[in-house]
TrEMBL record:
Residue intervals of the FAD/NAD(P)-binding domain: 4-289
A Pfam match: Pyr_redox_2
Organism: Nocardia abscessus
Cofactor: FAD
Keyword Methyltransferase on entry: no
This protein's name: FAD-dependent oxidoreductase
Taxonomic lineage: Bacteria, Bacillati, Actinomycetota, Actinomycetes, Mycobacteriales
Length: 396
């Protein structure tokens, strides 16, 4: 009887993890199934570009996993029954239930509405491809004339506002943020950011908390009404409610609490990686939901799965965060390094070079994710007859 590993999600964390597991584990002993809502690997880091009107390359998951023995199931996960080790999925054929022995949960995150009335009904977001495409259709409807209000002052809000303003110069783009725009950046980077907003004609409303979104406006806490033909909600990410509803221990934003091996603390047969995992980094702070965090959390989760199932030592993967790379349209960007306490350093790389570097990083990441087993050693480890859960990890 094969040990059934089910990987939920084939984004940055899931696609890497599934490919790596397939490369390392013997297919006589292990059956690996990947469930993903979309048939493609979606380059989520470029969804603001998709929304603004640019086309992204299709990367069909069937091609990504070709030749790996991975079973691909294109379906939406609706529930995880952590007690009975089943996953409920729905697709064009109806509802189905998959059984697992080990689950890797990498369903990512979605836009956090913070309970603000009207966001779900009237606002757009860029956290997933379907929602980015809805925003794109709305911007197409507006054509050369309309008001776009981006809500949020962090990375996704900045990237969305600048991309839309650059791609659609006829639209009047503004941004409302409860804090200061890029207030966390070092002096050089912040100056560059504000100049870019000026150049692109984006109006900035700082210290403005949006409390309600309506069909054609957004209303701030002080009563100011911002007319808006398309309100883009980019005020942070939260994890899909599936995790909490499944009985897994989660924190306030829905992220699953894990131990150092990336196992759910409430259900150790469930491993978590990427945005869905609540992980404390080496600096003692929670890792931000980011592609940069998906890398080490996936490596740790897959190393732990392999170690625990095959009886090997589990290396400790360093959980650090080096900085933010923020695009400002296609020709401009900022790379802001941070120190060990996650404070922005005074130096930063800004302008065309930063944009070129970011684009190269994104292309490399997408290529690597689309070729998940390229260049990796192939071991084909067997299932340990006596399964030992290694209590500790060892330094890499
Ligand atoms: C516009 C934008 C720009 C970003 N820019 C950056 C950046 O510059 N740098 C950076 O580090 N991070 C960036 N991020 C964050 C980054 O995209 C995420 O942190 C990263 O994608 C997390 O990887 P993940 O594998 O956890 O989730 P994802 O990559 O989102 O993968 C989750 C997968 O699960 C699938 N899925 C979700 N729900 C279900 C379901 N119910 N059933 C089946 N499948 C499901 C999805 O289709 C997807 O394939 C950006 C995010 C956005 C939205």
């Amino acid at each position: 009887m094969q040990h059934r590993i089910v990987v939920l999600g084939a984004g940055y964390a899931g696609a890497f993890s599934a490919g790596y597991l397939a490369r390392q584990l013997h297919s006589d002993d292990f059956e690996i199934t990947v469930v993903n809502a979309e048939p493609d690997f979606v380059e989520r880091l470029r969804l603001h570009q998709l929304a603004a009107g640019q086309d992204l390359r299709h990367r069909p998951l069937a091609e990504v996993f070709a030749g790996t023995d991975i079973r691909l199931r294109v379906a939406r996960v609706t529930q995880v029954d952590a007690e009975h080790r089943t996953v409920t999925v729905i697709d064009g054929e109806g509802i189905d239930r998959l059984e697992y022995d080990t689950l890797l949960y990498t369903l990512g995150s979605t836009a956090a509405d913070h309970g603000v009335p009207g966001v779900n009904e009237h606002a757009f977001h860029v956290a997933a491809r379907p929602s980015a495409l809805r925003l794109r259709a709305r911007l197409d409807e507006l054509g050369e004339d309309g008001k776009v209000l981006v809500v949020g002052g962090n990375l996704t809000a900045i990237e969305a506002a600048t991309e839309i303003a650059e791609s659609r110069p006829g639209l009047r783009v503004s941004l409302a943020t409860s804090g200061e725009l890029g207030g966390w950046l070092g002096t050089k980077a912040r100056r560059h950011l504000l100049r870019a907003f000026d150049r692109l004609g984006i109006a900035v409303h700082e210290h403005t908390t949006i409390e309600r979104v309506e069909e054609a406006s957004a209303v701030a806490a002080d009563g100011t009404v911002f007319a808006s033909d398309a309100t883009v909600w980019a005020a942070g990410f939260a994890v899909h409610p599936i995790a909490a509803a499944s009985g897994l221990e989660v924190v306030a934003n829905g992220q699953i609490t894990v131990d150092r091996q990336m196992r759910s603390v409430s259900h150790p047969d469930i491993y978590v990686a990427g945005d869905s995992a609540f992980v404390i980094g080496e600096n003692g702070r929670p890792l931000p939901m980011s592609c940069a965090s998906a890398g080490p959390t996936s490596k740790q989760a897959t190393a732990a799965i392999i170690g625990n199932l095959t009886g090997r030592k589990i290396p400790t993967i360093t959980m650090s965060y080096v900085g933010n790379h923020i695009s400002l349209g296609r020709k401009d960007a900022i790379f802001q390094p941070v120190d060990g306490a996650a404070r922005s350093k005074s130096r930063a790389l800004c302008g065309r070079t930063a944009a070129r570097v970011k684009s190269a990083i994104l292309d490399t990441a997408a290529w690597a994710l689309s070729h998940p087993t390229f260049g990796m050693p192939s071991h084909k480890y067997r299932l340990a007859t006596t399964r030992e859960h290694s209590p500790d990890v060892v330094a890499a």
